[in-house]
């Protein structure tokens, strides 16, 4: 049986198409599993409201984050996550509900200057967000309430990405016990 050039080309293209679909079929589930396991966030720092500890308030919003695009502002209060009221929840529980797979969405019910509204935010990779976390009490690197308040105020007043990056580095060094509490507080006071 003899094939002419056209028949050979057609058979080769068919084989390449079948191979391409086979490879795509094999790789697609892996890609979906990988992207589903990558965690994302919305780019805001939350804390308990000093005047009403059972309520959660936005302390800062990362620049160019989903939260900023959603018009969430410092001082807004968080009421619900995906329709579930969060009153009385720990901050760690709230964080667990806001963080999720990159590209997925979370619906936040907030009040801005007393006006309630819902915001749908799409999660982006955590690494792309400029957020700040304090060392947990069990790390041994704790700050007093006054010290935390001072550092939070400094974080809220950060204006440039360089300042934010420097603060991130200081917090991480403090958490990793590469610098002492005194060194951390002195650096925060001097540099910001």
Q: How would you describe the overall organization of this protein?
A:
The protein is of the alpha+beta class. 43% of the residues lie in helices and 21% in strands. The protein contains 6 helices and 9 strands. Strands 2, 3, 4, 5, 7 and 8 form a 6-stranded antiparallel β-sheet that branches. It has a 3-stranded antiparallel β-sheet with strand order 6-1-9. α5 packs antiparallel against α6 (181-191). The model is unreliable at 12-37 (pLDDT under 50).
Quick overview of this protein structure:
The chain has about 190 residues and is an alpha+beta fold. Helices cover about 45% and strands about 20% of the residues. The longest helix is centred in the first third of the chain and has 33 residues, at about 5-35.
Question: What is the average of the pLDDT values?
Answer: 76
What percentage of the residues does DSSP assign to strands (E)? 15-25%
Q: What's the shape? A: globular
Profile the largest sheet: 6 strands, antiparallel
Low-confidence stretches: 12-37
- Please trace the helix and strand order, writing H or E for each element: HEEEHEEHEEEEHHH
Query: Count of helices?
Result: 6
- What is the CA-atom radius of gyration, in angstroms? 24 Å
The helix content, as a percent range, equals: 40-55%
How many beta-strand segments? 9
Distance between the termini: 82 Å
Structural class computed from helices and strand pairing: alpha+beta
């Amino acid at each position: 049986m003899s094939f002419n050039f056209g028949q050979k080309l057609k058979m080769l293209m068919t084989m390449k198409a079948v191979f391409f679909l086979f490879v795509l079929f094999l790789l697609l589930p892996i890609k979906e599993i990988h992207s589903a396991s990558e965690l994302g966030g919305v780019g805001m720092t939350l804390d308990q409201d000093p005047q009403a500890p059972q309520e959660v308030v936005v302390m800062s919003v990362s620049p160019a984050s989903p939260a900023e695009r959603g018009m969430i502002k410092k001082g807004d209060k968080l009421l619900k996550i995906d329709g579930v009221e969060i009153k009385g929840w720990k901050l760690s529980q709230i964080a667990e509900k806001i963080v999720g797979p990159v590209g997925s969405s979370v619906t936040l019910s907030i009040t801005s200057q007393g006006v309630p509204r819902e915001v749908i935010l799409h999660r982006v990779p955590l690494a792309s967000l400029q957020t700040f976390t304090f060392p947990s009490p069990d790390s041994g690197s704790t700050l007093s309430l006054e010290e935390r308040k001072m550092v939070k105020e400094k974080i809220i007043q950060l204006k440039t990405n360089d300042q934010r990056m420097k603060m991130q580095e200081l917090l991480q060094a403090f958490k990793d016990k590469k610098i002492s509490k005194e060194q951390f507080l002195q650096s925060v006071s001097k540099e910001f």
